[in-house]
């Protein structure tokens, strides 16, 4: 039972959001009811992790095929290989961080950044300090169709806030999540909470680099923690990559604008990405059922 008011609750009532929440819930429930999940759920989780990691790395500019990722054993070479390796490490560990997330989300974010950056990076696992810039969210703009790059350039994202402001807002976010874990604030749908965590981390860019992959991993952890996707079989990163960088930037610009319309558009975009992730894992289940995997 809720013992307080959830500050995120008004977002759940924005235009189009209840419909997005209901569609996501229906899609996820259908996937969890698939007959393959009765016997091979762990395999589906494993496959979702690698597909989600591949997609998250692609959004950070390292667009490798699944075959290449499965074939490789060394991810410590060039920058693209390190990006893919970081995304894989995060996917492998995200589910193990759930217990810590419930009482110390900041500790988990530091761990996610350490996994993304690697031990060799002296800034790994620590937020940026005063005067340190935040790296770009979209290091490589990939043209998916004619006019794509022009469209991307038309969507201007504001700069990241200074390090002290980012730290203060990150603390507020952590307090909000801790209140939910304690039952002091609850009732807001998981999709909305996950979208806010994802959007806020992209807005704050608390680290000097790798903020995108960390934000997407945090969204995954929220979906697990909030009970929407407890087995982590719905790789929303796949959907984000499929929808494309331009749409991702445009939806994020809506979140950063802070208007009701912009916030609803961002939550809807996260919902659509999650449904596409469900479709990806449903295809995996179908392939397993036919004996192809």
UniProtKB/TrEMBL annotation:
Q: Where is the Fido domain?
A: 104-269
- Domain of life of the native organism: Bacteria
Official protein name in the record:
Oxidoreductase
């Amino acid at each position: 039972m809720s013992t307080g008011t959830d500050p995120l609750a008004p977002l759940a009532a924005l235009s189009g959001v209840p419909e997005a929440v209901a569609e996501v819930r229906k899609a996820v429930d259908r996937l969890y009811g698939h007959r393959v999940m009765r016997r091979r759920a762990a395999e589906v989780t494993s496959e979702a992790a690698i597909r989600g990691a591949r997609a998250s790395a692609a959004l950070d500019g390292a667009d490798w095929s699944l075959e290449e990722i499965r074939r490789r054993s060394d991810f410590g070479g060039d920058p693209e290989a390190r990006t893919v390796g970081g995304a894989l490490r995060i996917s492998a560990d995200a589910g193990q961080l759930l217990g810590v997330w419930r009482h110390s989300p900041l500790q988990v974010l530091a761990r996610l950044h350490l996994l993304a950056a690697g031990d060799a990076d002296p800034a790994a696992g620590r937020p940026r300090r005063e005067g340190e810039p935040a790296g770009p969210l979209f290091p490589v703009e990939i043209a998916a169709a004619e006019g794509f790059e022009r469209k991307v350039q038309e969507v201007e994202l504001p700069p990241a806030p200074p390090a002290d402001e980012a730290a203060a807002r990150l603390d507020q976010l952590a307090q909000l999540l801790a209140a939910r874990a304690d039952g002091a604030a609850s009732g807001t749908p998981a999709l909305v909470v996950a979208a806010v965590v994802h959007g806020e981390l992209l807005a704050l860019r608390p680290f000097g680099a790798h903020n995108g992959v960390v934000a997407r991993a945090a969204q995954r952890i929220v979906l697990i923690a909030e009970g929407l996707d407890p087995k982590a079989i719905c790789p929303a990163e796949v959907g984000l990559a499929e929808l494309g960088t331009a749409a991702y930037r445009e939806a994020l610009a809506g979140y950063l604008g802070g208007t009701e319309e912009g916030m609803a558009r961002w939550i809807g975009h996260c919902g659509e990405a999650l449904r596409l992730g469900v479709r990806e894992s449903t295809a995996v289940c179908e392939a397993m059922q036919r004996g192809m995997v």
